[in-house]
Fold these 3 entries.
Entry 1:
Amino acid sequence: MKCDSYIEKIFYYKSIDSLTINEKEHYLQCDACREKTDSYFSLFKIIEKEKKVKVNPFISTNIIAKLEEAPKIIDFKKAILSYAAVIIISIFMGGLGATYFANNTSLLSDNDVISQYFENDVDDFYVENSWLNMNYYNLEN
Amino acid sequence: MNNNTDEILIKKALENDSNAFEQLIKRYQQNVFQICMGYAHDADDANDLTQEVFIKVYKNLSKFKFNSKFSTWIFRIAINSSINYIRKEKIKKLFVRIDYEEVDKTLKANTKSDTNILRAEEKMRVRTVLNQLSTNQRKAFILSQYQDFSNKEIAEIMQLSVKAVESLIFRARENLKKIVLKM
């Protein structure tokens, strides 16, 4: 058996056990091919060894403990929706309140205020005096 | 609870039943660990990665829409977490300051144990070889070697056609051949 054809074939196997009789003969006779074969199969040996390693048997308990320790997960969608709802309700309540006060509060109209200035018939009496000093009018009289 | 299907356990877990989630962990922990081992080549790191994977699974459980098998979804998370771990490790190595005294101490401690050296050499060897494969070739190779999955199962996990997976595994083996012959 020639080295090239031997090397071509061994790369489709995972262990020496898979070699045919001819291939095994070549393996034993050719040092260079034996070295390459061993090097290649050793890779699968390492993988087989790694596959046999077992997971930590307490891993599930550890994970559950970690999850229970961790703060509750914030659902950002829910949080954003609830903030939006609070803002919308606040704006609505504000509007509703403003409408209520506008309709139900008896404020002094502009005409009433102006009439106090212009419809004042008493000489030397200024409405400002009345506002600033309520006694002025009484003293004069 | 052992006989419950994944679907029932997921629904229970979503209702904050920790026992149900623990059952799901127990069902898939070894498979996830082996995938992580395929990337990390170290039992401690693979255990940490497995924990990380299941915490991610729990946090995203409500996003699982039963469009694929639950196992397929978990394995995808395991692969992505492992790839991220490898990237982080590479970055860490770039920025780590080499403390020569510490290295010397470690080497002296390690030389006491031949098995440690052998194990470290094996780890280095398999890591060096697999690192030279492309991301997809490596994914397909790890799933076929560490999990003994069929090409159909690998295709489902990698969201590729069976033909594409066959081609990836073939090319991975061809590349391994070249790498080993160069060594």
Note: The two ends of chain B are 51 Å apart (CA to CA).
Entry 2:
Amino acid sequence: MGQSSDRALVDRLAAGDPAAFDEVHAAYNVRLFTFLVRLCRSRDVAEDLLEETWMRLVSHAGRLRADTNLGCWLFTVARNLHASYCRSRLVEESHAPALMTLWPAGTPRPSPFEEAAASQVERRIEAALAELPLPSREALLLVGVEGLQPAEAAAVCGITPEAMRQRLSRARALLSQRLESLPDPVRHVLREVLS
Amino acid sequence: MTPHEERGLDRQLAELPAITPDAERAARVRARARDALSRDHTGLAARILKWIAAAAIMPDRRESG
């Protein structure tokens, strides 16, 4: 969605136009869910945070600035809701890996990651991504996966563009290190696709 | 990492598949949000109208009082 169409949508949302909401929902619902599920590593939590994100848009529709970038605004709300959720649950990064299992053996129902990751390489990248510290993960999810500009991602995370550039650089290096620690055959395929 | 490697990594990340939320729940949330948007707007409009009406009536009250 471009800035001019965002402006028109913001006006229509402020006027309480449900069709405008439908357009924003259609454009961002899957993207927000994809971001949230990879951020919190739980489908159920992501569904709850997604719902709250949409309700926040509705409750703030009349107060949005005319020049609001809707994508950035929505990712900021989703990201902040996740941060609040982590604080309220006292979920610390160091405990997170113990709380979730990405691909448990013999799981009765495929995890969202299993459903999404079609190939082994994608699966490995998903797994390596899930193990990254939260600040690195959200930086890569926003810029690498969602295609936001680093400056936009910086605004979403509430940091300076320079801090985001450094965070991205660290995050890519960390992800690369984790991918390098994979078994030889997978690493070989990765090297081919990354080169 | 070299810029070339970074671009390769970003390309791989960009190609990760989207993860779809539960369709039924998404439809429920959308309906709830649409409803709230219309209701809030109607509510706001009603409040503004009430305020305008009150403002219009008040001088009369002052005059009659």
Note: The first helix of chain B runs from residue 3 to 14.
Entry 3:
Amino acid sequence: MSGRANPLVPRRAVVEERVAETADTVTLTFAARGGDLCDAQPGQFNMLGFAGLGEAPFSFSSIPPGGSRFVHTVRTAGNVSRAVWALEPGREVDWRGPYGRGWPLDRARGRGVVVVGGGIGIAPLRPAIRRLLDDRGEYGNLFFAFGARTEADLPFRRELEALAAAPPEGTTVRLTVDRKTEPGGPIAEGLVTAPLEEIAFPLEGSVAFSCGPELMMRFVARALFRRGQRPADHFVSLERRMECGVAQCGHCQIGAKYVCLDGPVFAQSDIARFADVIV
Amino acid sequence: MRDGERRGTVLPGGAVRGWLDALVRERRLVGPALPRRGQTIFRVIEDAAGLDLDYCSTMMGPQIFVYPTIQPVLRMDPRTGGAAEVAPGDERRTVLFAVHPCDMQAITVVDQSFLGKTFDASYAKRRAEIVTAVLNCGAACDQGFCESMETGPFLRLTEGFDLEMTRLADRLLVETRTGRGAEILALSEGGREAGAADFEEKEAREAAARASFKKKLDISGLPELLMRNWDHPVYPETADARCLSCTNCTKVCPTCYCYDMADDMDFAMTEVVRRRSKDSCHELHFAAVHGGNFREVRAARLRQFVTHKLSTWLEQYGCFGCVGCGRCMTWCPTGIDLSEMAKRVQEDFARGRAR
């Protein structure tokens, strides 16, 4: 073969830790086998899979330094995600990646940042949130809004509640659920777009990172555009069917874009002109 | 290119057969075979007498020898997790012969998916090993509009092929592009160096072939027009009235590269072969994700096919995804014609009824 590797050959990783987030969602920490490194950026994804079952894309929900470990928060949905979800510590998985273009944190430097996540869509935002908080001085005011169907469906619940209870300076955190099942607490009932009206810093010149159901992202975008945010500064992470992750299989295409290669994070202005996009 | 720079070899009628016999003998010759059940198809030629050099079009293009419809990619052991690449076969003897210019162009279009944004070593190996010999077309075929798409009827490419052939009155003009093209021409005997008269006849035949097209499509501004009018009623109207989502158009399209990945496990469950096989954007599953489908409506899937070929492909790869071969409309059971769909948007634009 001509020196360059076949991009479809997977590597192996072993589950080190499994933490339940909700009834159908777990956070898995993997250690790459054989000294392989996964040098990921917030917003990128891996293809995880099994011989006999196939592969599916999973965003990183945390990026430990060093690259020998990677973290995915997985909701059981299809064949592959169900099998990944069920992995216990010590079990192995095939992985390829990291792939795609992630959150443009450079673009957010020195500017106000709005982060909106819905349900499992909070997972791809989590490494970006970590960076924003770790390098707090590099960014302007931060406004985070996270929503889920009920309290029990909110991934990273304890972490997000702790953040909401004691946010760093210049940071606002709002948590919402469609339907409240527990009295009191820091989580309000309502749509995740509702708290956006509270944003106290000017949205002209601000940047947004949004991930969740595409219809949710549409309403988030409209709410922020109404208050002056530019579509070129509004970034969304899109979900599409992917079978290869390397711009070959064709499934993830939106107009002229490959979600796996040009995304999954896009400026809203880069995709709004294409058909079959809801955002 | 003027005569001064052009070099070619002319094989007199009698020498052509000898060359073809030598190609069959010395190489693995894949070419258009005389119809057995009414269809000319590209396959391995065992007797040069079985070549159909007068063919108009084939249902499946010759690109299936470069990019097979089904390809094993990995051999995996589900117990140990081992995964090994399935090495592509040795194609160094294969000569893909009498490929029409539109189909040669189509192969260079598929190249962009596997040698461009992502490099696919097995595709690259097969593509590099197979020798490609183009045969220019003397006249338009029934549904072809390669003249409009600037891919034919004579070769428009300047690279990506090994050898170009043009049939003259009683002889064959052969122009080699690469050393491997020259190697297969060297299997011929009785040729002479081409002269000015030969190239003049080639030019005259090209002009005549170009003038023979009735089917045309004006491609100037077309990608932008289709992009602006993505919500044009031609998509739902055509889809609802006639599209069966049968996927024939994408199966016969020589540039369609989209693939599905599937794992085949043996009965003992000791070995898995992960294969890729050509998929179709007309399939309901194509844009489906858990809990939804971004192109659930048939019109959206037809629009994806048409606008990808005639619009968004250009932005992705700098060329059209349609080479004007006419296969999709020929093999559509209800005769849906993407060039007619594009023309309807153009007509509406001319009348001020489109953006």
Note: Chain B touches chain A through 55 residues (CB under 8 Å).
